[in-house]
Design brief:
Elements: H1 2-19, E1 31-35, E2 38-44, E3 51-56, H2 71-83, E4 86-87, E5 93-94, E6 100-105
Antiparallel strand pairs: 1-2, 2-3, 3-6, 4-6, 5-6
Length: about 110
């Protein structure tokens, strides 16, 4: 029981460090959206201009949460919900932490 509480406290303490990204010039603020019952944070990538990052919330490490769904499908929907632009599938890739990065194709303004 103590190890469960200790690991939960450690996860909550380090969560802001994992999601903090350095601000770049002209970077848009982070947008939080919900896709298929999961919470996603969408930010512009500071280290790779032209790319956007989608980070899925770990659902507070709740083992009884929503069932797992395909991460790539959720990320594509999250990009579109947060920015109004569609991700370019050929440029999408996942990091070892599970973040999804992609370039976006926005509709031309009329």
């Amino acid at each position: 029981m103590k190890t469960l509480l200790l690991s939960a406290a450690l996860a909550l303490a380090t969560a802001p460090l994992l999601t903090a990204l350095p601000a770049s010039a002209g970077a848009r603020p982070a947008t939080v959206v919900t896709v298929l019952g999961r919470t996603w944070t969408i930010t512009s990538e500071a280290h790779k201009p032209g790319y956007w990052r989608a980070t899925r919330d770990w659902n507070n490490l709740d083992p009884f949460g929503q069932p797992a769904r395909l991460r790539t499908v959720q990320a594509m929907q999250a990009f579109e919900a947060a920015t109004g632009c569609k991700p370019v599938y050929k440029t999408m890739y996942q990091t070892i932490t599970g973040d999804v990065l992609s370039q976006l194709r926005c509709p031309a303004a009329r």
